[in-house]
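Next up, sample data:
>
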Amino acid sequence: MIDKIALVLIIIGALNWGSIGIFQLDLVATLLGGPAAVGSRIVYTLVALAGIWAISFFFRDTRRNIDK
């Protein structure tokens, strides 16, 4: 469950960065009252934590053991 939440937050962050790069528009800041607003800072922090959590995806063994 936490992996799916992290993935959703990473997607939100990626779409936000895409909108900044393409349109020079920070959607999170626009929707939540500016880049220094509490809501924006919470979202930015959650996206960063999700990115840190996602690092663990590289070290997981996702192969299923059929013999068990």
User: Anything to note?
Assistant: The first helix runs from residue 2 to 23.
